[in-house]
Write a structure and sequence with these properties.
Layout (H helix, E strand, L loop, with lengths): L6 E4 L15 H14 L3 E5 L5 H9 L9 E7 L11 H8 L4 E7 L2 H8 L3 H17 L3 E7 L1 H7 L1 H13 L4 E6 L6 H14 L5 E5 L6 H10 L4 E4 L13 H11 L13 H12 L16 E2 L2 H9 L17 E2 L7 H7 L9 H17 L7 H12 L7 E11 L5 E11 L2 E9 L2 H13 L10 E9 L10 E8 L4 E8 L2 H23 L5
Parallel strand pairs: 1-2, 1-8, 2-3, 3-4, 4-5, 5-6, 6-7, 7-8, 9-10
Antiparallel strand pairs: 11-12, 12-13, 14-15, 15-16
Helix pairs in contact: 1-11, 5-7, 6-7, 8-9, 9-10, 12-13, 13-14, 14-15, 15-17, 16-17
């Protein structure tokens, strides 16, 4: 085996789905399988065939996918103590899944054997050996998950190693060392793996760690340094309690920092895309500061940092963001300097006009003092910069709006908004009902403008956030509204601030629509 090749085993669909708030549908699991295969992982653990009908259906449906690289693994446990392996319902379910690979979990900590399984230590060894050898006789590739191995090793080294030998002697293709409770330290992992490496000289060793000590990635890397050549983990570190080892950090560290080969050609470039796809399918908010793939992983805010990174990216970036499919972000805030402003408006091909840069920066600082925040509303910043440099066009003029919220006899509130605008001298009046004042206002404004700008039909609001800026003033406090909008090509954010929630929302809505129309204008889309 190539000593610089690390085999990637993904368990997002099984161990990852045990994380709180995560519930993948059958179609979700199949779609993620395709993405993982495209990424280039070697093994995809699909689930526990006997656990629920969804996992049973997955193993049936996954056969119809045309996977290019990955092998599908079914997960299960060793035979029951009171069953012959051929009669064990769990083992037979694994065979019925018809996967080329089966991963079997077995106890290696004597305490777990006697106090949880409540069988003798010798019977547990027989259960491991019987199950592995039986599945091998059915032409399966078999991986043995040594559950609680590191805790077991620390308490009873001799027995933990006996359990590994039982699996190896029965023909296991890989021995997976599991830090199931996630409490081990990197030095402990490294030392124990080295000992196992010496005792099981011909075995393919794998590592599967949980993140309860916030060390899952470090522990995985330590295990690789000590001889492990298969790595198990999940996308984004999804998993029970504090999660599993995050493949989105492990893989780039192995490839870019340690020179190992993982995935296939171009796989690393897809890492950010796959990370965000899995967040989306799981219906979870992504972690902006997640290393390598987070939206803030290469975000620069301070003026000195921006100035330096514009000259040499190595000054404040440990890797090129493009190497993992991510991108650099220059954040606008009151901490920005002229270099930050210039970096953000380089699309306008301006010379470094220090007076203009200072003017834009002062406007940003003044507005942030009032409660605006542009680092999460870059579309609003671009509109501000366009106004300062004379490249702004107003697409409509507001003549007025009105929002009415009425509580009716049935107890349900009804909201109606009326908007009056003028486009090129033509007045348009529109009204619309909505689920709330902002929804009604958005609907009325779009209805008024769509006959002039049909492309607005392609645009939708996907997120709406409200933050109270000065809560000590109570109900008279200022609020900041951030709106996220999307069309077929882009996603953008805009911001509005006011003591009035509807007024703040209006400013963010108008910026969102004007940004959309500016994009269309620059791309050559004609007005109706």
């Amino acid at each position: 085996m190539n000593n610089k090749r690390i085999i990637i085993y993904d368990t997002t669909l099984r161990d990852g789905s045990q994380g709180e708030g995560i519930s993948f549908s059958l179609q979700d699991k199949l779609a993620i399988t395709q993405k993982l295969d495209d990424l280039g992982v070697d093994y995809i653990e699909g689930g526990y065939p006997i656990a629920n009908p969804k996992d049973e259906s997955y193993f049936h449906e996954v056969k119809s996918l045309k996977l290019k690289h990955a092998k599908i693994a079914a997960f299960g446990s060793t035979r029951r103590a009171d069953k012959r392996v051929a009669d064990d319902k769990n083992v037979n379910a694994l065979l019925m899944a018809e996967t080329p690979v089966v991963t079997i979990v077995g106890k290696t900590w004597d305490f777990q054997v006697t106090d949880v399984l409540k069988v003798s230590l010798d019977e547990n060894l027989d259960m491991i050996a019987d199950t592995v050898s039986y599945l091998k006789s059915k032409d399966r590739e078999v991986f043995f998950d040594a559950e609680h191995f590191f805790d077991g090793y620390k308490k009873n080294r001799e027995y933990a190693l006996k359990a590994l030998h039982a699996a190896q002697s029965a023909g296991a293709n890989a021995i997976v060392l599991c830090d199931t409770n996630g409490g081990s330290l990197p030095a402990e992992i490294a030392g124990i793996v080295k000992d196992v490496r010496e005792k099981l000289k011909d075995a393919l060793l794998s590592i599967h760690v949980h993140n309860d000590g916030d060390l899952a990635v470090a522990n995985t890397l330590a295990a690789v340094d000590s001889g492990v050549r298969q790595v198990q983990g999940t996308i984004n570190g999804f998993g029970e309690r504090c999660g599993n080892a995050d493949l989105c950090s492990i893989i780039p560290n192995l490839v870019l920092k340690k020179g190992y080969q993982c995935l296939g050609d171009g796989g690393l470039l897809k890492l950010t895309e796959v990370s965000r796809y899995v967040y989306e399918v799981a219906n979870l908010l992504l972690r902006p500061n997640q290393p390598f793939v987070g939206t803030s992983a290469f975000a620069h805010k301070g003026g000195l940092h921006v100035n330096a990174v514009q000259k040499k990216r190595e000054t404040y970036e440990h890797i090129p963001p493009e190497s993992v499919g991510n991108e650099r972000k220059i954040l606008i805030s009151e901490l920005s300097g002229s270099s930050t402003i210039l970096a953000k408006i380089e699309k306008f091909n301006l010379t470094h006009d220090s007076h203009l840069m200072r003017s834009i920066l002062e406007e940003v600082q003044n507005l942030e003092n009032e409660g605006y925040q542009f680092e999460s509303a870059e579309a609003s910043f671009e509109l501000l910069a366009r106004k300062k440099i004379g490249r702004y066009k107003s697409f409509f003029d507001l003549e007025g709006f009105r929002v009415i919220v009425e509580k009716r006899e049935n107890g349900l509130p009804v909201t109606e908004a009326t908007v009056k605008v003028k486009v090129d001298g033509v007045q348009e009046l529109s009204a619309s009902e909505g689920a709330g004042p902002v929804n009604a206002l958005d609907s009325a404004l779009r209805k008024a403008l769509e006959r002039f700008y049909p492309s607005l039909k392609d645009m939708k609001l996907v997120d709406y956030k409200v933050r109270v800026i000065n809560p000590r003033t109570g109900t008279a406090a200022k609020v900041r509204v951030v709106i996220e909008s999307q069309d077929k090509e882009d996603v953008w954010n805009t911001v509005g601030v006011s003591e009035n929630l509807i007024d703040a929302s209006w400013h963010a809505l108008v910026d969102s629509i004007e940004y959309k129309l500016l994009k269309e204008q620059e791309s050559g889309v004609k007005k109706a």
